[in-house]
Amino acid sequence: MSGGQTLTAGIILAAGEGTRMHSAHPKVLHTLAGKTFLQRVMTSVTALNPELTAVVVHHQADLVAQAARSYDSQVRIVRQDSRPGTGRAVQCAVDQLDGELRHDGQVLIVASDMPLLDADTLHSLLDYHVSSGDGATVLTVNLDDPTGYGRIIRDQDGRVLRIVEQRDATGTELAVKEVNTSVYVFETDLLRQAVRGLDDSNAQGEFYLTDALETARRLGRVGAFAAPDPLKVEGVNDRVQLADLAKAHNLRVCREFMRQGVTILDPSTTWIEDDVVIQQDAVILPGCFLQGHTEIASDAVIGPYTTLIDAIIEPQAKVERSRVQETRIGARANIGPWTYLRAGNVLAEDTKAGAFVEMKKATIDHGTKVPHLSYVGDAHIGHDSNVGGGSITANYDGVHKNRTEIGSEVHVGAGNLFVAPVQVGDGVTTGAGSVIRHPVEDGAMVYSTNDQHEVPDWKPAWER
């Protein structure tokens, strides 16, 4: 923070049930672009380096607390009692953390249902608060349609007089487009005094944090800082709002990649999560979902209709109509269509996993091709080998997963079955329909004999 000031605490309010989501899961654990609301807000708050970060929980408290600790092992968990309201949540936080809150610092209070709230916006709010000298500052936003939000009523000097909820506003107040976002900064001692007198003597029977601003205004000055980007402070109350916000955010992500030199043919059907990395001159075709820590190198072509999860795609690789998870795909590799690469695969350069291929924990060395209709699991295939269609590594014996080792420059006939654990040497050729149960030496040809029996003039029983 500027001015040598100290952010004493970041308090994140995550106690609400979120009834309008109509969900068995806490609202704050719903996701946008691959991360929960709570994770996103906690990441933004901790980026400001507060002396402590606290999350206030109540509804499904243990579940929310467990998630919060998974995002930050040092987070402090504050349990709100049964009395409702954001004001009560902050009262509980101040009571439980009081001995740790510096007298000469600031406390940031953030709602957890604004998944796009970013550290830059919070930094700007804190800098404004410190430079203004106000005792409390409200983060606001100007909306073309402020329906449903509390209006910010300022005095002639621009200070906040009050926040008026829509149901209580006059006609003149309803015309105000600046609204409350439920994000605040308080000087620590002022916050202590402001929340001390809160009660639930109102129509809703709740403790309102906005009422604390009335006390703060009597004891000092209350200012307001308008967020420059409305999308960053948009709240989510139901699944319609979540879908709209996710779509708007994703369109921004796609456009930013396009400005950096990535070709995205149809941003409306391309979904990219925040931790995805795409280099310039990569091409993303319609219907793709790029998730987790996926990395796509230059000149790779992804899609159409492909899902990548924590995948690494090297230059000039092509992946179409496939699902790839936790897999590294080498340069100039060709994947799909309709291929499923489960977790743990490494496909080197110039490899191929063709149509209707499934792989799991497979290592495929350079130049090797698994063209179609095959399953390769818990296996290693050396370089420049070719696997005939319909071949399977039978890796599971009912108790353990066993490995198959197939050498380099091996020619596997169609319809082979490798019963693991088994090793096949380099330069081996296998006959069509072979069942390989025992080790095969380098340079050998191996096949299985199956007697063919013919029954003349045969008819099924129902015809006989």
TrEMBL record:
Organism superkingdom: Bacteria
InterPro entries in the record: Bifunctional_GlmU, GlmU-like, GlmU_C_LbH, GMPPB_C, MobA-like_NTP_Trfase, Nucleotide-diphossugar_trans, Trimer_LpxA-like_sf
A single GO molecular function term of this UniProt record: UDP-N-acetylglucosamine diphosphorylase activity
Active-site residues, record numbering mapped to chain: H372
Cofactor info, note text: Binds 1 Mg(2+) ion per subunit.
Keywords: Acyltransferase, Cell shape, Cell wall biogenesis/degradation, Cytoplasm, Magnesium, Metal-binding, Multifunctional enzyme, Nucleotidyltransferase, Peptidoglycan synthesis, Repeat, Transferase
Any single Pfam family the record assigns to this protein: NTP_transf_3
Stretch list, region Pyrophosphorylase: 1-239
Protein name: Bifunctional protein GlmU
GN (gene name): glmU
